[in-house]
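not sure who needs this but someone in the group chat was asking about Lipoprotein from Flavobacterium tagetis so here u go. i didnt clean anything up, its just raw.
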Amino acid sequence: MKKRVLLVTMLQFFLMLNSCSGPESQPGGTPEVKGEIKADYITSFFINDFVVSADNILYTIGQTNDEKGYYVSLKKTDLDGKETTLKNLDLGIYTYARLALANNGDLLMVAKGNDEPHQDKIMRFENNFSELNPFYTMKPISSPFASKINLFRICSNNDNTYFVFDLNARNIKRVLPELKGDVFVAGSGKNEIKDGTGLEASFAAVTKIISFNSILYLIDEVYDPSTGTYKNSAIRKLEYVNNEWKVTTLVSATNGDHFSDLTFDTKNELYVVNAGKGIFKLNLQDNSLSLFKDGDLRVKASGSGRGVYSSFKYTEMLKFKGNDIYLLVSGNLIKISDFQTKFAATEK
């Protein structure tokens, strides 16, 4: 585990170094240049996941360090770009932490583990984020031959229920905390990407789940560790049809491409990040992908003067909140307000 964490940290640090070059990447930087976009703020550390609250507070979780050691840290960034560390967690246990926001603003988390006691629980940050306590514990699997529950991803359904992916069981379940229960949705348990309903459908490794109009959209991938490439990376849809949960693959890349994120904007358009290729739009009428952004990205934060010179090709995650866009690009999390106007200005 320690060797793997160190390798991940070194790789992320290398990407951060390669995302910036020249004086424009330093605080103060150079004077404004053609094509430069004014960002609200830029924050950088090894971010695993982030969410944006109803009052536009950014919450990030990922690897960080100080004079006392290395941690997985939960941080918040306010509207002015001020970053505050809320809680440090054990790096070995919470390396794979992922976040979700409840309807009431509670911040929830799951984290894949091996034999750690948290892997079957949805956790919640409480008492002004000073404590991390169990929010919901999955119902134990009755079969003595079943693997331990290993929650890998979580998604709020915006109705006080949640969908989770169990990496060990290779299935998706719906959690209903108010009823103190969870129910099976889909997944055969086989490590494969196969469409179908309920037990007939199969998942490999679901790395992202989002909910939109009671339909789930997810990224499902088959990764080959021996070659370090993706055999299959798919955007899939999970919807309740005729009293069954139906899984349908919308787009599948088998050429080593890797979809790293997907999200809807305020116009109900679905955006997909193809790592190393850029940001694309997915047309849900014909399941076609069209390029949105893949060129140079030159930004400078209005307040701090911190700058980043990189490319949209190196986008890892993104979210839209009204007219604002949040981009995680090679370790730099960038907030740009009124992004449509600013993007258009650089294209003139």
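also Residues 1-31 have pLDDT under 50 and may be disordered. if thats useful
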